[in-house]
Design brief:
single chain; alpha/beta; Spore Coat Polysaccharide Biosynthesis Protein SpsA, Chain A; UDP N-Acetylglucosamine Acyltransferase, domain 1; 12-stranded parallel sheet; 39 strands; 19% helix; 29% strand
């Protein structure tokens, strides 16, 4: 159901590996959760980087993990990534060096990325790799320009514009601090030269850590060419360190997804308020009203309409489905031409077949509703199987839980369930049967039978006037 693409053009990736740094805690997030696992548009932050590597066809992707390593493994285990552990976090050069053993004998190129740079685009990385290969560089890095580059290492160039060095802000002269081009921390290296240079990096004077940019002067001194690629949009290259930056990145990702959908034929009536997961897909001629949330790996077909305030997560909708206002749909499957809501709740395991109507204030859980059946309003259907062309009246509930276990209700084709009925499971309503309104059904109803499960009505004539007189004296 993922809308992500596989790159078919661009630089050759079969001789390219990636190292993604994800060992740090991220203290500025002020969180008990390691930074790279913070959710961003339906995925852990680092997953956006790993998914990009997958789309590009990178040969192997290695994640360098440390803080909450097991938690990171568990969260990312479904992705094509190998893990290496940086048990002691001693800087970015030290982190990359942990991958040396896993890449022993690899003679190709290696991308070095950070797990906290989720806005990085496929196009920018393709351009990075292409430039690296064409220029025969030993290292190629991404740079960008910031109006306020405070805190970043500045890019220094020679009179011809070629890369000369990176100077950190604390060591920069006043003139160098006025430089607006900064190092984005995204690299492509020739693998053997990278690891040879990493062993020569010396600890910093202040923190005694090993920093990856220090390999560049080592490679340059050895006669290697250092190339650069400019990221025109600085948001692509900047990392996330705070909750505010996380929110800004989420807004960028949401807009990217919505723009992609609209370009493919989806109508978003208020693009700024529509939230669609990066893993979701939406078919052409579908209309999304304001304040709609499409989460997880949801797949919505063509010609659908999702009205304001509805939330759909990890579900599949067929074609021409109408979801009215305020619905919640989770882990459910809805076939073509269904109508849902307003204010309906489809809980996990709900399966609606063609042309089903589930109306306002209806809750469905772990149930199958057959083709053409209607549950128009104010009803609970749980642990049930409904056949075709069944009609369920208002106020009906399937009593599926006896305090110890859940039990199923079966309603066969063309049965009619009157309003305000209680179907006490386990129970079966036969084909074409009618359950009278207000019934409590505890036994099987045979096909074509009419079931009355209610007490005999008794009328006490004149009693109403007596009650009113009595109450009126108080």
């Amino acid at each position: 159901m993922s809308p992500t693409r596989t790159v078919k053009t661009g630089p050759p990736m079969q001789d390219l590996c990636a190292i993604v740094m994800a060992a740090g805690q991220g203290t500025r997030m002020h969180s008990d959760l390691v930074k790279v696992l913070h959710p961003l548009n339906g995925l852990p932050m680092i997953s956006h980087v790993l998914e990009m590597c997958r789309r590009l066809g990178v040969k192997r992707t290695l994640g360098v993990i440390g803080y909450q390593a097991e938690r990171v493994r568990d969260a990312l285990g479904v992705l094509p990534v190998e893990f290496v552990v940086q048990a002691e976090q001693r800087g970015t050069a030290h982190a990359v060096l942990q991958a040396e053993g896993a890449l022993q004998g690899f003679e190709g190129n290696v991308l070095v990325l950070s797990g906290d740079v989720p806005l990085l685009s496929d196009a920018l990385v393709e351009r990075l790799v292409t430039t690296h290969i064409k220029t025969r560089a030993h290292a190629t890095l991404v740079t960008t320009r910031l109006a306020s580059p405070h805190g970043y290492g500045r890019i220094l160039r020679d009179p011809r514009g070629a890369f000369r060095a990176i100077v950190e802000e604390v060591e920069a002269t006043p003139a160098q601090r006025r430089v607006t081009e900064i190092n984005a921390g995204i690299y492509c290296f020739r693998a053997p030269r990278l690891f040879a240079a990493l062993h020569r990096v010396k600890p910093s004077a202040v923190k005694k850590e090993l920093y990856l940019p220090e390999v560049l002067p080592i490679l340059r001194k050895a006669g290697g060419r250092i190339a650069t690629v400019l990221a025109e949009d600085p948001r692509e290259a900047l990392g996330i360190n705070t909750r505010a930056e996380l929110a800004e990145a989420a807004a960028v990702l949401r807009r990217r997804v919505v723009d992609r959908l609209m370009a493919a034929g989806v109508t978003c009536l208020d693009p700024a308020s529509v939230h669609v997961s990066s893993l979701a897909s939406v078919g052409r001629d579908t209309t999304l009203y304001p304040n709609v949330q499409i989460e997880g790996r949801t797949c919505i077909g063509g010609g659908c309409t999702v009205h304001a305030g509805s939330r759909i997560r990890d579900s599949r909708l067929g074609n021409r489905v109408t979801v009215l206002d305020g619905c919640v749909i989770v882990e459910s499957e809805i076939a073509d031409d269904c109508a849902i809501g307003p204010y309906a709740h489809l809980r996990p395991g709900s399966h609606l077949k063609r042309k089903v109507k589930v109306g306002n204030f209806v809750e469905v859980k772990k149930s199958v509703i057959g083709e053409g059946s209607k549950v128009p309003h104010l009803t609970y259907v749980g642990d049930a199987t409904l056949g075709e062309r069944v009609n369920v009246g208002a106020g009906t509930i399937t009593c599926n839980y006896d305090g110890f276990a859940k039990h199923r209700t079966i309603i066969e084709d063309e049965a009619f369930i009157g309003s305000n009925s209680s179907l006490v499971a386990p129970v079966k309503i036969g084909r074409g049967a009618i359950v009278a309104a207000g019934s409590a059904i505890t036994q099987e109803v045979p096909p074509d039978a009419v079931a009355f499960g209610r007490a005999m009505q008794a009328n006490k004539e004149g009693r109403a006037a007596e009650i009113r007189r009595t109450r009126g004296k108080k």
